[in-house]
Write a structure and sequence with these properties.
The chain has ten helices and 19 strands. The protein is an alpha+beta fold and about 375 residues long.
Length: about 375
Amino acid sequence: MFDENWRTAAHSYALALHPQSLTLLDEVGLASELIPQGRKITQVALYDGERREHVVKLDRAGGRYPFVLVLPQSAFETALEERLEARKVKVHWNHRVHEIRPAADSVTLLLARLQKETRGYPIAHTEWVVGKEYPLQCSFVIGADGYNSFTRRSLDLGYADLGGRLLLSVFEFETPAELPDEVRVVLNPENTNVLWPMADGRCRWSFQLAADHADALTLRRLHSLLETRAPWFKPLPDELHWSSVVQFEHRLAERFGKGRVWLAGDAAHLTDPVGAQSMNAGLIEAHTLARSLFEVARDGASDDILDDYGIDRSREWKRLLGLGATLPASESATPWVNERRHRILASLPATGGELDGLLGQLGLKLAG
């Protein structure tokens, strides 16, 4: 396993693990370790300004984990690395893949080991530079290397921009407010805003901005956004823990891989972060790929199961991104839900059959 970064995430980016993801993590004994570190979310509340319109219950489907777990990305990545080390799997940090050479029965990687080098005179600064390059031959490659995936580009796969960019100002802070175990999604006519409660008295607010908007990210700016978009949120915070401006796009790779090189996660798809669908789908994809590769490499199964993986995941993401799919509203759906149904689709923390169940509570059905 190779990663260009030099360590796990340092910032406490909020992370929402869906019930299906927790079930997968339970297979390696990680769910019980992570749950005490996070905050259980049992429902999604949909707002229009100050008005609470609908509540979607996450526990209707049952299962062992009838909730979404919110915890820092750093805690999740550290737990994953420790579990890999316990199984004698080493993460090679500071390694960049420079070339991928697929063959009929193997793949050769050209790897670069990065190292710090101090440069500059009279003011010194440190840069990461290539210390050594060397080849590595392997049976298969899984590229889970994110939005700017080198693996995807090496396969010369298109990554279509489907429109619908979402620019967000994100603020994390401590609050004395006793927030319920629910994520609140404020679907105003012109913007989407999200409140995630976290453990230890913290919370995370994300506010949609106009395209190419430069935001101040100050405490005063946070107060202004809360007063205009969520006036019910009290009291206003006295201090910021962390803030940033981030942009998300709707994208989908033309296929999920070929031959002995395959994609998972953001390397293959992107959507709004509100429902944390892309990251959780990536965990499902990694799990499915691992099982499929084991069957091919160890049990002699046909490579067709890898092609089936690509077809299945492309079909699912076309549904999630509204490509060739419809989202009709039944008679039980309110006019408010019907008007915002496509925004609601990306706001629910689920994929696959779990998402169908949540949509059904609102009188919606994802078809196609």
